[in-house]
Amino acid sequence: KLEIAFPRILREQVDEALSCLKNGELGKNEAIHECRKCMKKIRGLARLYRGSLGKDYRRINTTFRDTARILSDLRDRGVLLETFHALNDFVDRNLLKSPGVRAFEQHLQEEFERVESDPDLGADQKMKDAAKRLKKARKDFKDCAPSSEGFDSIQDGLQKTYKRGRKGLPRARENPTTENFHDWRKRVKYHRYHMRVLQNLWKPPIKARRKELKELTDLIGDEHDLALLDSAIRDSAHEFMTYEEIERLREAIAQRRDVLRGAAILVGEKIYAEKKSKLSRRIRSYWKTWVSEKETQAFSLSS
């Protein structure tokens, strides 16, 4: 029963998020990253069941959004360093080895390490605050359950999220701003989470769809990370790099972002080829067959 899956998955993701924050083997940067991923999955889950959650949908979405925000500035420091290291794939090596660029890289490294060791940054306290909120959320939402049964419990959320992602495609294609691509990325990720929840209805086609969605979210995610790095270079690299170094580096980043955007649009056009009603009917048919298979198996075992 699809409606039974909601409280179980919610509980599992909250527990996983708490486990990440308590895991001493993970560095703080990695723990924060994994914890935030769990909260994004919870928000995606809530969106899938939004039509049958009533007022609980907004409460769940707001709770985990605000909890994730406590850790967002800490995570951004890690993203900047990781993205800078990825420049090796497409930026002139001589430019990356120049004294100014190396000095800026060292600056990013120090900011990354501050999350692990600088008490003034407050990482430990922020992680404790997030854990406290997660524990409260686990208690507050332990009895939360969809009001509808079967496919009806997810139909509205599945269609609405897919529709928003489908609308985001032409918006990003025709007006490729950082904001439009970032908004589209959020819709794509939620749809990807939905396919993960529904994968067992028919694994081969849904797993293939998840693979394409993973490629799309990676493309848009890399583009967004480069946008963050470009902003950091624009705002704070002047004390490390020359004007020429900054311009050359930003130009290389802009060219790479164009490539990623173009590739993302091509993948997106395949994923969002169907109208929401057709996608919904197709997934519903998977669900009906899946239910019939389970009933047949149960009958065979009891015979």
Characterization of this structure:
The protein is mainly alpha-helical and 303 residues long. 81% of the residues lie in helices and 0% in strands. It contains twelve helices and no strands. It has helices spanning 2-22, 28-48, 55-70, 72-85, 93-96, 99-117, 123-140, 155-174, 178-198, 203-236, 243-271, 276-302. α1 (2-22) runs antiparallel to α7, α8 crosses α11 and α8 runs antiparallel to α12 (276-302).
Which structural traits does this protein have?
mainly alpha
How would you summarize what this structure contains?
This protein is an all-alpha fold and 303 residues long.
Topology overview:
Blueprint: H1 2-22, H2 28-48, H3 55-70, H4 72-85, H5 93-96, H6 99-117, H7 123-140, H8 155-174, H9 178-198, H10 203-236, H11 243-271, H12 276-302
Number of H/I helices: 12
Structural classification:
mainly alpha
What is the CATH-assigned architecture?
Alpha solenoid
Taking pLDDT < 50 over at least 5 consecutive residues as the criterion, the unreliable ranges are none
Query: H/E element string?
Result: HHHHHHHHHHHH
Query: What's the pLDDT, averaged over the residues?
Result: 93
The overall number of domains is 1
CATH class category label:
Mainly Alpha
CATH third-tier fold name: CHAD domain
Please describe the biggest sheet, giving its number of strands, its sense, and whether it closes into a barrel: none
Strand coverage percent:
under 5%
